[in-house]
Amino acid sequence: MNRYIYLLFIFIFCLSCKQHTRAQSKSENSEILAADRVQISYVDNVLRFLASDELEGRDTGSKGLEKAAQYIEEQFKQHDILPYFETYRDTFNAKGVPTYNLVGYLEGKDKALAKEFIIVGAHFDHIGKAKAVDGDTIANGANDNAAGSTAVISLAKQFAKYNNNKRSILFVLFGAEEKGLLGSKHLAQLLKEKNLNLYAMVNFEMIGVPLNDKPYKAYITGYEMSNMATKINEYVDATLIGFLPKAKEFQLFQRSDNYPFYKQFNVPCQTISTFDFTNYNYYHHVDDEASEMDFEFMTGLINQCFSAIATMANTINREVRLH
Fold this sequence. Notes:
This protein is an alpha/beta fold. It has a single domain, classed as Aminopeptidase (3-Layer(aba) Sandwich). The protein contains 9 helices and 11 strands. The strands form 2 sheets. Strands 1, 2, 3, 4, 7, 8, 9, 10 and 11 form a 9-stranded mixed beta sheet that branches. Strands 5-6 form a two-stranded antiparallel sheet. Helix 2 packs across helix 4. The longest helix has about 35 residues, at about 1-35. The radius of gyration is 21 Å and the shape is globular.
């Protein structure tokens, strides 16, 4: 009889612990959902600067890219995002041209989980000049990829204010993506050599305009390779992320800065995008301007992604996994 009483006690205790964990998780999710949202005015200001004529298309090695870098560094400093290295810059050589990634760091608040990292990234370089249209030769790169860069900067601002992430987060703006993913290849190899404990990488690419006639707000590359899309939708309690067949057809998983991290670390590393091949005509075009962006849409997407990534950063177990 004593054995049955003991087993019953263990069962009740485990059930109680499970219910407590669920209640605690629900409370944390409520806190995340209630966190301050990034404002459309901030998103507008950041993107308009990054896509301005002053930056001359942010080509690798250009003065415009340097101005963009200084602006991003200032945003990180203002919001208490620390440099991961001695400075924010991770320098490397892009086919003979010195350039850099920008790497900001927000330490996790949980003693054990802080050793695990999430990378939130986007490339901030573009192509500089393109075929002239009405005398304009500056390829401003608003959607490609000032939009993704704005998401990373905005998320860094939100996370710094929230300041309750259990896991550590790196906010990375990649250089020389347009030269062949050179910045992400360099950083992925460097962090692998440093034995970084990478949980997941969420990359942003071309999120400035809504998808056409889709039941979801954005898609994720390599959709079938992990449960990241499913978990993101679960975390925000909405159909935020879906599957875009053309992303698989055109092998977009291999064509953005997520891919070098997947190759090095073999963990979920995927790109969120809203470019569906029908909704934007100005890829590598001088008319890829800030005026073409949907700032209300972008702001809503960034805020939902904050909730998803914050939950990802706070779960006790690694719930996002490769299939």
